[in-house]
Specification:
Elements lengths: L7 H20 L7 H31 L6 H23 L4 H29 L2 H14 L18
Length: about 160
């Protein structure tokens, strides 16, 4: 299903998150000397985009979804996943993740994004009236205004991935 215009900004940010996950997966196994670089990148992406993204979902999308009883348990699962992912991002910022932790994080974050895209967004588009989806888009625009709108790639020296 094509993404509703109002949800496209979140879907673009999801693409950025998935890109990070793919890059981590492709870099595995991550050597000890590269661990700090990856943790810095994960923490940076959280500060520039993902923390704002999570807040926008929690303030705009999740309340809209809770209006539909069939989505209540999905929303609660996503809220719980946000908490776990925030802890992962905090561990990256603190520089205490192992290579295995980074791999687990990438799998967890990717699965979370796919759940939002394939389950929550798809069902919201089916259940909500176009005017209600448009209203969500206006609220999201405001909620996301401080997020970096580009996919930043680290400036790693050649051969360090």
């Amino acid at each position: 299903m094509l993404r509703a215009r109002s949800l496209i900004p979140l879907s673009r940010q999801h693409q950025h998150g998935l890109a990070l996950c793919v890059r981590i997966d492709r870099a595995l196994p991550i050597s000890e000397d590269k661990l700090a670089i990856w943790q810095t990148e994960v923490a940076q992406q959280f500060q520039q985009e993902i923390r704002i993204h999570f807040a926008a979902e929690e303030l705009v999308i999740f309340p809209a979804a809770r209006q539909f009883s069939e989505l209540a348990s999905l929303v609660e699962a996503l809220v719980s996943e946000h908490a776990v992912l925030r802890a992962d991002f905090a561990r990256a910022e603190a520089g205490v993740m192992s290579a295995a932790d980074l791999s687990t994080f990438a799998q967890r974050f990717s699965a979370h994004i796919r759940k939002e895209e394939r389950q929550l967004f798809e069902r919201l588009q089916e259940l909500m009236e176009p005017a209600a989806l448009s209203a969500i888009g206006v609220k999201l625009e405001d909620a996301l205004q401080d997020a970096t709108q580009t996919c930043s790639l680290p400036n790693l020296p050649p051969g360090t991935r």
